[in-house]
Amino acid sequence: MEKKVYSTDGKELRAITLDDKVFGLPINEDVIYYAINNELANKRVGTACTKGRAEVNGSNAKPFKQKGTGRARRGDKKSPLLRGGGVIFGPKPRDFSFVLPKKVKRLAMKSILSLKAQTDRLTIIEDFTIESGKTKDLVSILKNFVKDEHRTVVVLKDNDAMLKRAGKNIPTVSFLSYNRLRAHDLFYGQKIIMLESAVKNLSDFYVEEQEAK
Predict the structure, then answer these.
(1) Is the pTM of this model over 0.90?
(2) Which CATH superfamily, name and number, covers 2-28+101-212?
């Protein structure tokens, strides 16, 4: 598969060949679902906690006699049926995270990249940085490729601190390094902007390591 490489001004520079083992795979919806579900589950804090009948502070004494009142039988005031009583089967602190097999996670990333490339939502730009770290300099570049309201993901060749700093105040833009992709951000990104060097790094990262095994 071939893709055009653009300058930061939006002008076409040249064509680049994408590795079909990363950008030309059939879309596997199952592994994409598992990868996104895994990321969301790992983010959950799991600190919700309620008190059961045995944990509520209150008297254990029977509030009124068993018979003759015409009311329902009550053992104590901590009953879940009464106001201020315990909670029936309420949430307790727990760990929602789970480990996804490495092969499944890698296949999910390649499936998402293939999906974006095949639906023309992937744009490749020549390597650039924002030396000033100012948001307006980054906005002047992004406006040539995306609309303001579109959720955009920029895939970097490395951890460019100044580029990330420039995009910190843009709520619709997120940055990912080629070796630390997130399935949720990639899948829901309406536009994927990838630096030219990141394309080669992705091929080396996903293909060469697999062949080495």
Answers:
(1) no
(2) Ribosomal protein L4/L1 (3.40.1370.10)
